[in-house]
Specification:
212 residues, mainly alpha
Length: 212
């Protein structure tokens, strides 16, 4: 299919990789728990769009620059880490519903859908580890005699993204359903949001210290 090989192995491997916890899963869970499944879905779409940045970059050979240039990798890494920390600090500083700190029963501040999409997109697009992952993982499933290797890369990247979106949407629905069933109060939701913020700060620090 379009110069690919071992497609079923690629799909199964991609699904297993997608269910591994990471910044994307945490972001989806945070938005779904605090604002419901619709916000979780918007987060999924932002993340899925960010994946395509890496797919096309790898297909065009731009990801190879990150793999070979220490300066390029460090620049993207620092920007990505700073953005993760910035999101985390924003979640940690959230007050109840944007109102007075004395309003204990208000929930976390509602974030606009377009901002959720943007955050999900940049969280993924600014992570150089994702670019290197595509560069290392996908070529194994491109046939040596593929008529167009960039096209085969894009096809596989699209399949991987769709695979991931199925999992991400399921995670968003499950998180929203669990929050509803457990009757998580506004104050608990606020502290859950702050816990996720602390996790984002930690992930940002980890990315900043990561090597190629």
């Amino acid at each position: 299919m379009a110069g690919t090989q071992h497609l079923w192995l690629f799909i199964v491997s991609g699904l297993l990789l997608n269910i591994t916890p990471g910044p994307d899963s945490l972001f989806i869970m945070a938005r779904s728990a605090s604002q419901g499944w619709r916000a979780g879905f918007v987060a999924c779409w932002g993340i899925g769009s960010g994946v395509f940045v890496h797919v096309f970059a790898a297909a065009l050979g731009l990801s190879a620059l990150l793999a070979t240039s220490a300066a390029a990798f460090t620049a993207v890494k620092v920007i990505g880490a700073a953005y993760l920390v910035w999101i985390g600090i924003g979640m940690l500083r959230q007050r109840a519903g944007g109102a007075s700190p004395a309003v204990v029963e208000a929930g976390p501040r509602v974030i606009r859908y377009r901002d959720i999409f943007r955050q999900g997109f940049l969280t993924n697009a600014l992570n150089p580890k994702v670019a290197l992952f595509f560069l290392a993982f996908v070529p194994q499933f491109i046939a040596p005699d593929a008529p167009s290797k960039p096209l085969a890369f894009i096809v596989l990247g699209t399949i991987f993204d769709i695979n991931g979106m199925l999992w991400c949407h399921s995670l968003a629905l499950f998180t929203a359903f669990a929050s509803s069933r457990l009757n998580v109060g506004p104050s608990v939701g606020l502290w859950l949001n702050r816990t996720m913020g602390a996790a984002f700060v930690a992930l940002g620090a980890r990315l900043a210290l990561a090597s190629r």
